[in-house]
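ok so I'm stuck.
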Amino acid sequence: MVRSRFLKDLAALAVLAAVYFTAGKLGLKLAFVNASATAVWPCTGLALAAFLILGYRVWPAILAGAFLVNWTTAGSIATSLGISTGNTLEGVVGCFLVTRFAAGRKAFERAQDVFKFAFLAGVVSTAVSATIGVTTLALAGFAGWTIYGSMWSTWWLGDAVGAVVVTPLLILWWENPRLNWTRKQLIELVLLFLGLIFTGWIVFGGRFHAALKNYPLEYLCIPFLIWAAFRFGRRKAATAIFLLAAMATWGTSQGFGPFARESQNTSLLLLQSFIGIMAVTAMTLAAEFTEHKRTDEYVRQLAVTDPLTGLANYRRLLDALDSEIKRYDRSGRPFAVVLLDMDGLKVINDTYGHLVGTEAICRLANILRIHCRAMDTAARYGGDEFVLILPETESPDALRVANRIAERLSTDGDDPPVTVSTGTAVYPHDGRTIDELLAAADHVLYLKKGSSKKKLHQPT
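replied:
not stuck anymore, here's the structure
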């Protein structure tokens, strides 16, 4: 098992190094100020995501991938080793800072953490690689000191945008690779990405007149990023940003689009500045919208959930009963309700204290939750009264469920022993309104409770 685990880890590191090498070679095809300095470097985002997801143990893969990229491009073994060390340290420092100050892999769940991530991973840690890399090349004579500033800014900006574009994409898809889309959502997603691709093709594909070249047409892409963030959240927003970055980079490198200038490196720097700002903006909006949705869902759950037991409350009970009545009108299938009333809760409170009484209520709620089907609704009706709604259930089955719950509670082994009285009613046989149905179940319950009391007080 140890050997198998070692081989799997080794294979994963090899794949990571190969992917890093491939991405690095593609990025260095756009190196114009120096063979080793490019304004497009997705490897930073890849390395940072690997460190955040898999831990610091992936550093050999990053070091090897970076070394091979630089060794097969320009420079010497010494300069390649120095540059790859800077690339690796960049990932390590970025991972440490993001984990320590920006919630680590959860950095994209809150807007404030997105800003922290952008600053720590996109501004601070990337300065490590830029400084070590450019200094190494200058000391070795592969770059002049006169262009140190332009090389450093190009290196740093390429790494920074790689971090804010690629890292969210990889982490969010790694954590949630499932595609749980409804047909309506799928259609909207297709429209969204078709619109983004078409707009990107128009803006960055050289499809408009040269006289419009200096117009700010790049902002036509922003509505699609907002659409993705608002309607689909962080994962789709990160995907839209990456797609836009890929199209814009290709078009700008071909001399198309509003960022195209005489200097190809200047063109890419202008583009990367735009992409970086759009990435941070879109991810912040997506995090904010997602947080608002979570808050709304939490408030909605509070409005329909009993705070003590976690079961449905009275409001949710009425909604569920109304829904079942409407379902009966459509399908003609009856449903049953089981009313449950704890026996002797006041005695328990007086004897053992209200805390034990509260625990007894929760014991019954847990049993109801266990014995509920996915389609059933268990609700707290009052202080010590509960209701269980059983769709598509007749009276005999409802009675069996009630007896099973009562038996399970009385034999759960906890102290003090607790019993429950039950009453059942079936719609529409026992009532055609909510009040009539609950009243019928309540009548049966108290008939049973009265019968139990008579048996208890009969002389022996």
